[in-house]
Design a protein that fits this description.
260 residues; alpha/beta; Purple Acid Phosphatase, chain A, domain 2; five-stranded mixed sheet; 24% strand; globular
Length: 260
């Protein structure tokens, strides 16, 4: 089996002291990683850290540098794809080191362990909040799924291809989920799809394939299906998740809610 941490939506900024908001994202990420380091042995074997986007909130080089310096304390491969708040160019300087990037301009990559194939796809539309998979990304996925393999397959994207029931977040989800679904028909087995974006734990399916979203390390959105639901955030509970990628494995969320 292969084991992974699944983290998402850090929302770091260049200077936390200059932004008027109720939380310090850098401190919270550092606190989360310190807790993981302290109990790292409890997770058993770990093969990498899957990061499903929004490392930065403002796209600044400093935010990626700070996040990388904090995350490298885990001493694990960092398997990151961008979210809608990210910018590819500064992110690429720090988070393209551990994966086999297929195109130097986008975060489409593959990563393999002895029993697991992870495919990371870039859904970022810079300047927009919704997500879209490019034809090149879908072609890469189709190519990999069409190849015979005995490995378990994980797909990581930022924007969920399912609805969560939160109207203002579902409006800015993945816009071409139908194309993704068609592409997944090439899979010879059910695959797990790991996402971020919605700052909470939501589960669903795309055909025979399971979809799950990770909690954010810094904030969460309240579940509220009303069309006029408020769009604010809550400071807790927050956290991350652990994935056992074996065919009979599991994905489980873990809470870390301490705030400064």
């Amino acid at each position: 089996m292969s084991g992974f941490l699944h983290l998402s939506d850090f929302h770091l900024v260049e200077d936390e002291t200059l932004l008027s908001r109720a939380f310090n994202a850098k401190y919270i990420l550092k606190n989360t990683i310190d807790k993981i380091v302290d109990k790292k042995k409890d997770f058993g074997n770990l093969d990498g850290v899957i990061i499903t986007g929004d490392i930065s909130d403002d796209g600044s080089t400093t935010s990626y540098s700070d996040a990388y310096d904090i995350l490298k304390e885990l001493n694990l491969p960092l398997l990151a794809i961008p979210g809608n708040h990210d910018l590819r160019e500064p992110m690429m300087k720090y988070f393209a080191k551990d994966t086999n990037i297929q195109n130097p301009e986008f975060f489409d990559w593959v990563y393999e362990t002895s029993d697991t194939l992870i495919i990371g796809l870039d859904t970022l539309v810079e300047g927009q909040n919704h997500g879209m998979l490019r034809s090149e990304s879908l072609n890469l996925l189709f190519e990999k799924l069409s190849q015979p393999t005995e490995k378990n397959i994980i797909l990581t994207i930022h924007h969920p291809p399912i609805n969560t029931g939160i109207p203002f977040m579902d409006e800015i989800g993945l816009k071409n989920s139908d194309e993704l679904s068609e592409c997944l028909d090439a899979a010879k087995q059910p695959i797990r799809i790991l996402c971020g974006h919605v700052h909470g734990i939501y589960q669903g399916s795309l055909g025979i394939h399971s979809v799950v979203t990770a909690p954010s390390t810094c904030t969460r959105f309240s579940f509220n299906r009303r069309v006029d639901a408020p769009k604010g955030f809550k400071l807790f509970p927050t956290g991350f998740a652990y994935l056992d990628s074996s065919s009979n494995g599991f994905w489980t969320p873990l809470t870390t809610s301490e705030q400064k």
